[in-house]
Amino acid sequence: MSIFDDGFDAEDACILGGIVGFAEESIRVEEEGLEKAPEEEIEIDSSEIKGTDLVLIYNMNPGLYKYIANIVRRQKVKWEKDRLARESVTEEIAALEESEAMLEDMEFENDN
């Protein structure tokens, strides 16, 4: 494997192409996740805003406050999806570890 050690050759082009392809795919998947988040905007009731800083932002620029609130809401949906995906992977890993332990026990019994 060479990356510019002996000049730029076909192998270097393939490696860089793979890196760029991976980056493009990652960006595409990330953007899809944001597009799938609910796009409807929440209604803001100024009497429900908690915190002095948030009230000041709302009073200075209600549109900015609404924009920020909707970004946070969409991000929360994304984080929840990511959390569920991590939990699913954790369950799969636990099942694989259990299966591996069972196979090792069976192998040990067969050896004796």
Question: Can you describe what's shown?
Answer:
The protein has 112 residues and is mostly helical. It folds into two domains: 1-36, no CATH class; 41-111. The chain is 77% helix and 0% strand. The chain contains three helices and no strands. The chain has helices at 10-36, 52-60, 62-111. The radius of gyration is 25 Å and the shape is flat. The model has no long low-confidence stretch (mean pLDDT 77).
Characteristic terms for this protein:
2 domains, 3 helices, single chain, about 75% helix, about 110 residues
A few lines on this structure:
Helix content is 77%, strand content 0%. It has 112 residues and is an all-alpha fold.
Total count of helical runs of at least 4 residues: 3
Uncertain spans: none
Q: By helix and strand content, what is the structural category?
A: mainly alpha
Note the run of SSEs as H and E: HHH
Fraction in helix: over 70%
How far the N terminus sits from the C terminus, by CA atoms, comes to 45 Å
Main sheet overview: none
Beta-strand portion reads: under 5%
Q: What is the overall shape?
A: flat
**For the residues shown, what is the average pLDDT?**
77
Total domains: 2
Instruction: Compute the CA-based radius of gyration.
Output: 25 Å
SS elements, strand count: 0
